[in-house]
Design goal:
The protein is an alpha+beta fold and about 350 residues long. The chain contains six helices and 16 strands.
Length: about 350
Amino acid sequence: MKLSRNSLVIAFSAMAAFGQTAAPPAGEQESTFTASVNEVVVPVTVTDDKGRFVRDLSEKDFLIYEEGKLQKISFFTRERNQPVVLGFLIDLSNSNRLHWDKFKEAIQDLVLATMEPEGKPDDRFSAYLIGYSTEAELLVNTTNTPEPLLDRVRKVKPGGGAALYDALYMACTSRTLVKGEPLEPRRVIIIVGDGRNNAGKKGLEEVLEIAQRNLVTIYGVSTTAFGFYSEGDANLKRLAESTGGRVVYPLEDVYSDVAGYLSKPSDEGNYAIKVGTGGYAASIMKGIVNAIQATAGEINTQYILRYVPSESDVTRAFRRISVMVNVPNAKVRAREGYYPLPAQ
């Protein structure tokens, strides 16, 4: 999936790093991990005008501003093998029944592509699994092996409403932490769904704030097909773009070439690739595979910068950040800003 690139000065964000206690599984001792509330961490992705990752930038290529004031970078790395904690949030509502078998396979591939990027176990990666329909449920708590996640994904079935925001809140508050979060390893959430929320108790603004306070980067793998409207699409984009991630659309080309129904009558409609054929199924899987590769590649290809604000404003007010990158026509993806204090 290619993205347009048209700006050198890109607004992006960071997050004041802090620890938060998460509920451990039954029988395990609760632990609290903390970091300095003064240091701001900036995970950032840079791509060129063709959507390719820019991998060879150095510290001198970045200028960071907080509320318009230039900041001094205290830490910089472009190490590609950074530890990451992945949260897989799976939409198990009725809206995903049509292509569920395909997405079930895709989720398993995504787990393997991120946790075993070279085809073998990698202890730098940990992950947990949350499924949401009418209610959100922690299906697999934080683990550094993919097998428990893969096994649970194979068994779940969609049905019911969509409590997406409750699932996001659960991801930030109710699972076992890995020592060192959120500095190292980083926190990433991948939502596989259409972004709709029609159940649960939490609201968009509430979960967006707690995600930003927890230094979470959100990615979306949309289950909405091209030409079909999803009322949750705007919310999914906002969650992703506000936290420095993006949304990919694996089904966007499956229905993109549709002639008028009356010109070539067909019981199931008139698609460029006839429904029920191997070509149709192959097109769906190709889109899903490309989306998985793009998402996994970005998670493993980010720069990490840190700085201590030159003028600390110890309030709950949101602090906006911007950056200049010394790459013509570059696209920078990161958060819009951060909160100086942790969530209450």
